[in-house]
Amino acid sequence: xxxxxxxxxxxxxxxxxxxxxxxxxxxxxxxxxxxxxxxxxxxxxxxxxxxxxxxxxxxxxxxxxxxxxxxxxxxxxxxxxxxxxxxxxxxxxxxxxxxxxxxxxxxxxxxxxxxxxxxxxxxxxxxxxxxxxxxxxxxxxxxxxxxxxxxxxx
Length: 154
Description:
Helices cover 38% and strands 17% of the residues.
């Protein structure tokens, strides 16, 4: 998806008028959308909740990453738009951030709308809770089928 050409306020307004009820913002573009998309798929399954996972680089006037997400979170919070109702549809914004060393540096943002990874980053979750082939494929950004064809991974 290309970057919107409007301001942060305009981007926030576009979320309000969309058909989705949940927007999940993630730091990275490689493993994060896949990983958190799977989390959302399971959590929203059977609940008729329409959601979208959006990478930080999609935000207007931002290069991406954690700082862009935190800035957008603060903007939405200051405008009372982390959870809002418009035309009978309630929309919620969630932010999934890599913990990195934020806990050690006492820089965690405390909010019901922010979730940190348990480990340093999302890739650690993939390696810890997935099988070897899926973990390697995620880290290398390759299709798992390609790795399955290698005899050592049988």
